[in-house]
Amino acid sequence: MKAAVIVFPGSNCDMDMYHALTDFTDAEIVDLVPHTTDSVEAYDAIFLPGGFSYGDYLRSGAIARFSPVMKSVITEAKKGKPVLGVCNGFQILLEADLLPGAMKRNKHLKYMCRTVDVNVENADTCFTFAYERGERLRIPIAHGDGNYECDERTYKTLKANNRIVFTYASDVNGSTGNIAGITNEAGNVLGMMPHPERAMENLLGSEDGRRLFTSVYRHWRDTHVVTT
Ligand SMILES: NC(=O)CC[C@H](N)C(=O)O
User: Fold this and answer.
1) Cα separation, 166 vs 96, whole angstroms
2) Does the beta carbon of 25 sit less than 6 angstroms from any atom of ligand 1?
3) For ligand 1, is residue 85 a contact (CB within 6 Å)?
4) Domain that holds residue 31
5) CDD domains recorded for this chain (predicted)?
């Protein structure tokens, strides 16, 4: 598997994502790809890390969404390649219309940085099949704009089609339905606010994020590698 970690000006979780992919999957190639690149076609999976792209000016993710690389990210997402956006990456996917809804400021208007309980609502995606449905994970959050908002019709559609992949076990930031992560209709684009790449080692608090990366890798292997 060739994986691309996109680096925007202001990304700050790019190296954590790189570490998660290089040290916990068997991906042959993991590249840090600058936002100025115009094609990511050569990659099998694309990762948008967290951070403060363009200083969160205007709105989180609103400027990064127009980075040169995003045209190709959108094309590859529409082809069905796995695209994961974590935190600011999720915000960029929302701004790029690859996922529905928007992020508002956290309900208490405070930046929050702590480890929270996250429920696995759908373990039937290429990102989550190494988990069990109903499992409760410990994963760090670190955001000021994590209050996910969508209209009622969108919420019903997300729910009816099992596109809510993660929820917070309690109301941490005001998100509609405690949503912590959703997919697009095809299931190959996942946006999530909690940081699985910061939950890779028990020494650092949790290793509950590992299986997200191993799921993506195994999904690629199962669909691309012929064994005799
Ligand atoms: N950790 C991050 O990706 C931060 C996300 C975003 N810039 C916010 O504060 O909401």
Assistant:
1) 21
2) no
3) no
4) 2-224
5) GATase1_FGAR_AT
Give the count of beta carbons closer than 10 Å to the beta carbon of residue 119. 17
Q: What's the pLDDT tens digit per position in 25-83? A: 999 999 999 999 999 999 999 999 999 999 999 999 999 999 999 999 999 999 999 99
pTM reported for the whole predicted model: 0.97
> Which atom in ligand 1 lies closest to the alpha carbon of residue 146?
10
Number of domains in the chain: 1
ipTM of the complex in this document: 0.95
Read off the CATH number of the domain in which 113 is found: 3.40.50.880
20, 196 in Cβ contact below 8 A?
Answer: yes
CA of 211 to the centre of ligand 1 (A): 23
